[in-house]
Amino acid sequence: MTRPIPPKADGADLSPPAEISAGGDAPAASGDLADRLRWFAPGTHITIRGLNKTFADGTVLYRDFDLDLPRGKVVSIFGPNGCGKSTLINMISGILDYDSGQILFDGKTARETKIGYVFQNYREAGFPWLRAIDNIRYPLKFLKLSQAEKDARVEKLLASFNVSIDLNRYPYELSGGQQQLVSIMRALVIEPEVLFLDEPFSALDYEMTLFLRDKLQSVLTEMQITTLLVSHDLDEAVELADEVLLLTRKPTSVAARIPFTAPRPRNAEITVTPEFIDVKARSLEIFQREVRKT
Amino acid sequence: MSDKLTKYLPRMGWIQPVLGALALILLWAFAHVAQLVDPVLLPSPLESWNAFVEGMTEGTLGHDFWRTIVRTMLSFAIATLIAVPLGVALGSSNKLYRSVEFLIDFFRSTPASAMFPLFLVFFGIGEEAKIAVAAFGAALIILFNTAYGVMNARQLRQLAARVMGASRTRILWDVTIWESLPQTFIGLRSGVSMALVIVIVAEMFIGSSDGLGKRIIDAQMIFNMPEMYASIFAAGALGYVMNMLFTLIEARFVHWGGK
What we know:
Radius of gyration of chain A: 19 Å
Largest sheet of chain B: none
Oligomer: heterodimer
Structural class of chain B: mainly alpha
Strand content of chain B: under 5%
Radius of gyration of chain B: 23 Å
CATH topology of the largest domain in chain B: MetI-like fold
Number of helices of chain A: 10
Order of helices and strands of chain B: HHHHHHHHHHH
Distance between the termini of chain A: 31 Å
Number of strands of chain A: 9
Largest interface: A-B, 23 and 18 residues
Structural class of chain A: alpha/beta
Largest sheet of chain A: 6 strands, mixed
CATH architecture of the largest domain in chain B: Orthogonal Bundle
Strand content of chain A: 15-25%
Shape of chain A: globular
Number of strands of chain B: 0
CATH architecture of the domain at 12-113 and 193-292 in chain A: 3-Layer(aba) Sandwich
Strand order of the largest sheet of chain A: 5-6-7-3-8-9
């Protein structure tokens, strides 16, 4: 990985030129690489610059990809199959290497950032040798906190989720939904700066999905964490999002970014409001347009 | 009558596992009584049982039994201490594993008994040779299984720990080793069986003064058949109990295995 010209973490003296929108695609026109790397809109948390990723078989997935992601917002990533949605969040979160380019969180690397990640496959992501409660506690050992502070964190989290499951059980003794709830709490207990959700509900039944979505929604509203969600379910993607990020087929670029500003907390009932329907219809249109391109 | 049967049969559930054993003893007794086999070669089950009880209470069977246990456990312990850390190291480095894979496979396929002379040359005819050769045989199985378990650990859990900020060493300790435990235990269980087999054979053929193997071969030479059957039974019981103990320990330590 090359890391050209790290932007300063402190954005105060870097007020960006007015013509650069949050879309982050304007600087490319300026032609000046250094500028493109340095400038980003106020309120930006994650900056991706010149990202390149080619698979071993030669398929180019990302070429010179730029993206700015806003702080404290939930961004849903939606796009055609195989366009690299999961690959993108895996590269951002630092669990997948990229060929070149730069991904920074307020100027910090992923290793220097507190990251929460919820995997789709909760069965293979939890630690079955630890009780559910110890699974939730586990990531706290990487933070410099006293035992009392750690306990307080866990207590606070459990209170905000208000769960009724027996956390002294082992993960394999819990239902799928309960296991995923444990995964979500494990990701949130460190009070992450960024939360990644990779199709967190797609392996669960609908009732459990609705329940977890509501829980997650209310906790995220409370905690104001920058969140990236990959979802195959457009209703879910829109309902949870402050912004829907639509991707093209590979080599992948941003097809559109559609804001969804309905007030929170939201629940499944929001899906019948005109604003929701409008955002969903526009997203769907762009999605279908991208799918049809060959 | 059939009512009574259906009423009592469920309560007799415990009897099922011993039915096969009972059948074998009955067959044995029948063969003995009917003199299907020379009675010198096939004493009655009762004679053999008496030889076992006598040997255990008054005779030296108890001592031999104990010596075999000690040798097996000692060689197993040595094998575990060497093979588990080595297996973890091999499993966590692909390059390292590739470079010794052939060696492990080769020696794993070499019958340990074929190595007896070699170990005799190096360790002499004393206690050491027997323990060393048994440890060698067990270690290869444990090593192979541990390395295999580490190599095949699911990647997702390691990624989950990595994204939380765990270092490579932390991931190895907190995730990979745990993840490999079910496979390691398979190796340990096979290893302890292998150690027992080799110890018994070594006691037979590498000048031993005690142990079940020595006792079996001695009894055979002087045609003391009840004694021989008693010793074989003791060896079988030992193997069975060891395996059962391991299964219990495994169920406790790797409770998540297969789930």
